[in-house]
Design a protein that fits this description.
The complex is a heterodimer of chains A (347) and B (389).
Chain A (H helix, E strand, L loop, with lengths): L8 H17 L6 H7 L1 H7 L1 H15 L6 H5 L26 E4 L2 E9 L6 E7 L5 E7 L4 E4 L9 E8 L3 E3 L4 H37 L1 E2 L2 E2 L4 H27 L21 H30 L6 H13 L7 H12 L9
Parallel strand pairs in A: 1-3
Antiparallel strand pairs in A: 1-2, 2-6, 3-4, 4-7, 5-6, 8-9
Helix pairs in contact in A: 1-4, 3-4, 4-6, 6-7, 6-8, 6-9, 7-8, 8-9, 8-10
Chain B lengths: L15 H24 L4 H18 L18 H12 L5 H4 L5 H8 L2 H12 L5 E4 L15 E5 L2 E9 L9 E7 L10 E7 L5 E6 L8 E12 L3 E2 L5 H15 L1 H18 L4 H29 L8 H22 L1 H6 L3 H13 L9 H12 L7
Parallel strand pairs in B: 1-4
Antiparallel strand pairs in B: 2-3, 3-7, 4-5, 5-8, 6-7
Helix pairs in contact in B: 1-3, 3-8, 5-7, 7-10, 8-9, 8-10, 9-10, 10-12, 10-13
Classes of the chains: A alpha+beta (347), B alpha+beta (389).
């Protein structure tokens, strides 16, 4: 364990109660300053997995954004000299492949970051010339920075490109495992955020179905409408349950049993549990994109209705660090490599 | 049964983890015998005989007595301790999980609502495997619309006289007892006029006719009741209070047993993984099925704890049921895709077992309340959408 204590459900409820009003009041703008004032680094150090799941779920639900993702992935470096680290993300099409390549002494980077730090250092995973995975610590100011607004201009996604001479390089035997741990941390955060925005989409659609009347009755009385929202609720509960599994996988002692695949970095989410959570949450976001919009119908298609922001954020977050379309095959490949079926949770 | 050792009921209750480890260690010693017992006859008759042997052995050893009332020979305590036993047996392929967990539905519902006298008289024989019970709920014209059931029970002094017909009664041909729902109120009394009874299946006037399912098993039955007399002391719960019994039992049917079901699906995925020749198509199919089972298992874990703590709302079980149906179909869809030639063309036992399970999985969204009913419940009870007129 890397943390200094355990957050109880009451503690987490206090976190939600304290942050929710400010997140909502931000109207989709960045709440990085709110998080910093709240003492996010301390919260993260105390009990990282529940803190991440709680705060990112709230980001998703309120539609707010913050530049916390790189630091969450940096949990993989918490016991290293690079700590506190910010980790750069691969582009969507790269899934979880390293977003950089070593080119002689320099490292050539094309990566993403939510609200890239101005100045300071960042960690990037890179292919070595021998094909092996290395980690490089680079100065962010060496890189060209451009907005990566694209589908979701409110997220604060930034693209960082360029060749940088690393400040430090980790080419050791643990580099690949550390990158995997960073990816698993990122997947946990993104899965929680996706679950939050799916809840927000479901709430919007269910409210609409209760109020909107056609043929003299609320449209929510029609079974065709009810079942779309019921399916969305089930997809959301499935996502939530797997996020809980990923959170709890951080608390289990290393080597807890033969039925677990042990995370490389102590305290990181189990790789498989994080993949499943990210995949199921992305899948729930796809169901929300289809079913919540269909129930909201015309009003949901307008720019003035809040739904489209959740819809677009779901599209983007699903595609970071492996989408719900790609992850099942990655999960299956992992199972084939393990040669067994881990049970992930026990009573 | 006469040689059953009475274990001290005041023994300290273990944690689920300790219970699983202790049970696993004991199971190591008898695993080969149980495997041989199950392999000896893979027909329904064979599975039922095997299930009886296993149930009796576990009851003797005390592993399955936790959570059952002392009046029935139980140790009280947490039913989670039985869930880990069923899970361990299932992960090792030593029981037919569907048959083995049936007392978790009928027995648990009965224990929750029957009188102490009824519990003391009947439950232990069921839990030891000496007796088998069946669930007389559905009727030809009351499936999803259960409250519309028509089998009548008319009071005549100390007895009720039952007339009517039940259908989809699981494994009724093996049963000594039936938990029967019958109308005691006026014909239009819907869910308010139903009473639950524990009826002896060998009472004159009861006729059982097995129905062959599309998988080839005679798992279901039709049950006919012609002037069947049943004592008023066999009422479970209150007269005209049978809907409460039905809802309790259905909540168990839609939630408790899925912890074991998910374990079975993991065991089946393991078997499929070993049979698969690999490749990206297999990875995608197995990976998708696995994530759905993982979600079911994660959800069911929360459900087991909530039920054990008495803070589980019955409508929540509809989420578990929908997840279970989707996960089970995904596992056997993957199996069908990856073992296609065998599925389509082979008659050997291994192919027959996979095919049987695939076909049975098609019913997962039908039995125990259809997917449509579950979604209605989710929409109206969990999402608070207005009721359909």
């Amino acid at each position: 364990m890397t943390g200094g204590g355990m957050l109880s459900e009451n503690d987490l409820e206090s976190v939600r109660a304290a942050l929710a009003p400010a997140f909502r009041a931000a109207g989709g703008e960045s709440v990085s300053a709110v998080l910093a004032d709240f003492g996010w680094p301390d919260l993260l150090a105390t009990d990282p997995a529940p803190a991440v799941a709680t705060v990112f779920e709230l980001l998703g639900r309120t539609g707010a954004t913050a530049g916390a993702l790189g630091g969450v992935m940096g949990q993989a470096f918490v016991s290293s000299p690079w700590s506190p680290a910010t980790v750069l993300l691969p582009l969507p099409g790269h899934r979880s492949a390293p977003p950089a390549t070593f080119d002689g002494a320099a490292v050539s980077i094309d990566a993403l970051c939510v609200e890239a730090p101005s100045g300071g250092e960042a960690v990037v995973a890179a292919h070595g010339s021998d094909g092996g995975l290395r980690l490089a610590l680079v100065a962010v100011d060496c890189l060209d920075r451009s907005s990566a607004g694209g589908t979701d201009p409110w997220l604060g996604l930034v693209r960082l490109r360029g060749a940088a001479k690393p400040i430090d390089v980790d080419a050791g035997p643990d580099a690949a495992a550390r990158w995997q741990a960073a990816v698993s941390w990122g997947r946990l955060a993104l899965a929680a955020q996706l679950a939050g925005l799916v809840q927000a989409s479901l709430d919007l659609a269910a409210d609409h179905a209760r109020i909107r009347s056609q043929f003299g009755r609320a449209v929510g009385t029609f079974q065709a409408v009810q079942h779309r929202l019921a399916d969305l609720h089930v997809a959301l509960e499935a996502a939530r349950s797997t996020v809980s599994t990923a959170v709890e996988s951080c608390r289990q002692p290393e080597g807890a049993g033969p039925d677990r695949s042990v995370g490389a970095s102590s305290g990181a989410p189990d790789d498989l549990a994080a993949m499943v959570a990210k995949s199921m949450a992305g899948r729930a976001a796809s169901v929300a994109a289809a079913n919540a919009l269909q129930v909201l119908a015309g009003i949901g298609f307008t720019w003035e209705h809040p739904f489209h922001r959740f819809h677009k954020r779901g599209i983007v977050l699903d595609r970071l660090l492996g989408s719900s379309r790609d992850l099942p095959a990655e999960i299956g490949a992992r199972l084939a490599a393990l040669g067994e079926i881990p049970t992930l949770v026990t009573l | 049964m006469s040689t059953v050792t009475r274990l001290t009921p005041e023994r300290a209750e273990p944690s689920p983890g300790d219970h699983r480890r202790a049970f696993g260690a004991w199971l190591d010693g008898v695993e080969a015998d149980l495997r041989a017992s199950r392999q000896s006859c893979r027909t329904l008759d064979g599975e039922m005989a095997h299930n009886r042997r296993v149930s009796e052995l576990l009851w003797e050893q005390g592993f399955t007595r936790w959570g059952w009332p002392p009046a029935a020979g139980g140790f009280a305590g947490s039913p989670l301790l039985r869930a880990v036993v069923a899970e361990e047996l299932t992960l090792r392929g030593l029981v037919h999980q569907n048959i083995f967990t049936m007392p978790e539905i009928l027995g648990a519902g009965f224990a929750a609502l029957a009188s102490p006298a009824l519990i003391g008289e009947h439950l232990e024989a069921y839990l030891t495997g000496r007796h088998w019970w069946c669930q007389g709920f559905s009727e030809p014209e009351a499936g999803s619309d259960l409250a519309n059931l028509r089998t009548r029970a008319v009071r005549n002094g100390d007895v009720f006289v039952v007339n009517g017909q039940k259908v989809w009664t699981t494994l009724a041909q093996y049963a000594q007892r039936c938990v029967l729902l019958a109308r005691t109120g006026a014909p239009g009394s819907a869910h308010r006029g139903i009473t639950a009874f524990l009826i002896d299946v060998d009472t004159p006037g009861v006729t059982i006719r097995p129905l062959r399912g599309m998988n080839g098993d005679d798992e279901f039955s039709e049950c006919f009741f012609g002037d069947v007399e049943i004592g008023a002391d066999r009422v479970i719960g209150e007269i005209d209070g049978g809907w409460t019994v039905a809802m309790q039992i259905l909540a168990f049917e839609r939630a408790t047993i899925f912890w074991t079901r998910a374990a079975w699906l993991l065991e089946r995925l393991g078997a499929l993984l070993r049979r698969s020749s690999g490749g990206p198509r297999a990875a995608a199919l197995i990976g998708d099925a696995y994530q759905q089972v993982a979600a079911l298992r994660a959800r069911s874990r929360q459900t087991q704890y909530a039920m054990a703590a008495g803070r589980f709302a019955a409508p929540q079980s509809s989420v578990d049921k929908v997840l279970m149906a989707a996960a089970e179909k995904a596992v056997f869809d993957a199996a069908f895709e990856l073992l296609e030639d065998e599925f389509v063309t082979e008659d050997g036992e291994d192919a027959a077992v996979w095919r049987n399970q695939y076909l049975y999985s098609r019913a997962a969204s039908i039995y125990g309340g259809t997917g449509e009913i579950q979604r209605n419940i989710i929409a109206e009870r969990l999402l608070d959408l207005p009721r359909a007129p």
